[in-house]
Amino acid sequence: MDLGACTERARTGPCFICAFLSGYPDYEHHVIAQDDEHVAFLDRWPTLPGKVLIAPKQHIEHAVRGPH
Ligand SMILES: [Zn+2]
Question: Could you tell me which residue ranges the HIT domain spans (predicted)?
Fold first, then answer.
């Protein structure tokens, strides 16, 4: 895995969650549950069996980083 290329793609490429939610074919994921504001789906490259990702449907950046 090329970490530099991966980081660059994550910073400049399309947001994979937005692409997945708009139905872009290369970004399909298996949806487990969803409501109006959130979606839970299986990780396509899970590090553990059954790993689930949960995301807000609204595009939010730096959600993990705290406020400055
Ligand atoms: Zn997004």
Answer: 16-68
Interval between CA 48 and ligand 1 midpoint (Å)? 24
CA distance 5 to 28: 22
Q: Which residues surround ligand 1, an ion (CB under 5 A)?
A: 15, 17-18, 59
Residues contacting 27, CB < 8 A, separation 6+: 16, 19, 20
